[in-house]
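Render this sequence as a predicted structure.
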Amino acid sequence: MKVKLIVSLLVIYLVFSLGLAQAQNEENSCKPLKFVNVTPEAFECMKKKLQDYGIDVPPGNEGELSGKGVTGSFEWDGKSVLTIIIKEKPFGVSCETADGRIILFVDECKGK
């Protein structure tokens, strides 16, 4: 229950205001986050949760995701390694904050 609350707060925090969203160029993107031991079930869980929150996620194992002031890319090797890069985020949200929230979100779908 605590993890769901934290994840919900993450999403609200990241998307709280479209008016404050500020695009960043490639050189201002956050560093890639790499996750291991991501099962097919966990990967599908993450995609569904993002879509439920209004983030567009294309079908397949890689692509661009966007919505509510956040854009990024993802690539999953089809077995266990997932890489996520946040390219744009709301103004005032640091990469460290965004990364921490993504880590919590991934851990929830991985069953931690």
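Summary. DSSP finds three helices and five strands in the chain. Strands lie at 21-22, 33-35, 62-67, 70-76, 82-90.
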